[in-house]
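Letters spell out the chain; the tokens describe the backbone. To illustrate:

===
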Amino acid sequence: MRSSRGTVPRHIPSLLTPAGESDESVCADVRRGALWLLLFGVALVVSLSGCTKKSLSKSELRAITGEIVSSTQKITGHKSEITIRPQADRSIAGVPTQSAADDVYISLSDPSQTGALEDALADIARRHKLRVVATASGGVIRFDFISNGTRTHTVHIVAPIASQPRAPVSHAGGNGSLAIILDDLGYDRAAADSLLALPFPLTVSVIPHLPLSSEVAEEAYRRGDQVLLHLPMESESRDVKQESVELRVGMNSQQVESALAGMLETVPHVVGVNNHEGSRATADSALMGELMPALRERRLFFIDSRTTAGTVAYDVAERSGVPAASRKVFLDDNPVKEAIQAQLNLAARDAARDGSAIAIGHPHPATIAVLAEMLPQLEARGIRLVFASDVVR
């Protein structure tokens, strides 16, 4: 039967009045139809609510982490290096949530094990009905496990260090030692990948409390590079972007200690510190006097980036018994190839003249390209490429 609005579904009683039927019969049909629709609506709500998966509990999340570790150990014969770092989660849209997520870092000793580990991770996700987003860049394969739009785990499979060779640090002979620090890591994944692919001893300085802070620091360490905390400090300029947490003039020792401890939690494997901005902070003797004992207690050295001629940071560090050094050259204040080449040559001359020097740059494409091109040339001239820890006193 058809109405003016189209076909009446067969399973729903007709609400139209056939010729010859009484009003009472029609009312009964109406009541039956309404009851059916009500029952259908209830069933639909129940069905839809059953499709919504609960968020993973903390015990469920940890159990999955245990499965990842167990599968890795089985595949690698307990010869892989595994680190687990619980972190606050972000939804896929980037909105912070109160749930937790586990970051699992796996360094394989044998690259041929990668395929079997990828299959095992996919199987774990499938059994727990988790969506998987897999990406690969810079020799690192990343698996994000996602439940209801929220990340529960990120597994980083780091390429064996042997397959990403680093030139050994030499301490004998030569024409001076040059340590190159690359600042501002933690923002850009592609920039970090390009930097970490360079086969030279580099010191990477990571800004804390950024989405990629822990990830970049962990991967730099596993590739054989040295990690610094790029410690945010107050600037004289009001135009400089402030970080979420920074050392500010007027802080007491407890406030400095708390801020530093929180920063170090987000940047693993730190061996030293250099200042991020800080033209006002590093010129304040009182603030630097609060910072240095906290560094000394943790056996961390200090590199003064010298963002102001009025800095007292190096002098306070020396008086406080903290190993320290100062930057000689900024490589890329003018981030064009010719200017960076000139600054790198200047740093090499300083190293040859003074015995050692520190140059600071940033992960700009031009900077990375110049380093890839010129560092072999500097080594051929007898310049020793070393870590920042090798030039502090």
